[in-house]
Specification:
Small Protein B, Chain: A, single chain, 35% strand, alpha+beta
């Protein structure tokens, strides 16, 4: 890992398909030592995870971190809720967004930053309707057909 790089450990590919991403924010997360070791090995899944506000703090749910093989008694529940680390100003901004109709807090990716800390890209997202998803797929397919046609034309 070079200077200024981040190593992406897990991505939520379903998020960009199911939601319109309004804004993203980098958050820290409170983890146990064995959880960090599992994340470094890439044994984390955020496909169905989401974040919610509880008593002025933000927690992430359904983030599955597989138990560390050598962790024995120190391993935690793989699906437990985990606290996200944000400044009060950022929490208030997020609360303002999610009190509006249809907005959710969805993690896009988990990565290890250049200092070796585990970070989560948390997005403020609005759910897509079925016709929006179909429209996105049709748009992507049209772009692929254009690229393919252009590459055949100039080769």
């Amino acid at each position: 890992m070079g200077k200024g790089e981040k190593k992406i450990v897990a991505r939520n590919k379903k998020a960009r398909h199911s939601y319109f991403i309004e804004d993203t924010i980098e958050t820290g997360v409170v983890l146990a030592g064995t959880e960090v070791k599992s994340i470094r090995q890439g044994k984390v899944n955020i496909k169905d995870s989401y974040a919610m506000v509880e008593k002025g703090e933000i927690f992430i749910y359904n983030m599955h971190i597989s138990p560390y093989e050598k962790g024995n008694i120190y391993n935690k529940d793989p699906l437990r809720k985990r606290k996200l680390l944000l400044h009060k100003r950022e929490i208030n901004k997020l609360i303002g967004y999610i009190t509006q109709q249809g907005y959710s807090l969805i993690p896009l990716s988990i990565y290890i930053n250049k200092r070796g800390l585990v970070k989560i890209d948390l997005s403020i997202a609005k759910g897509k309707k079925l016709y929006d998803k179909r429209e996105s797929i049709a748009k992507r397919d049209a772009e692929l057909r254009m690229k393919k046609h252009m590459s055949l034309k100039y080769n």
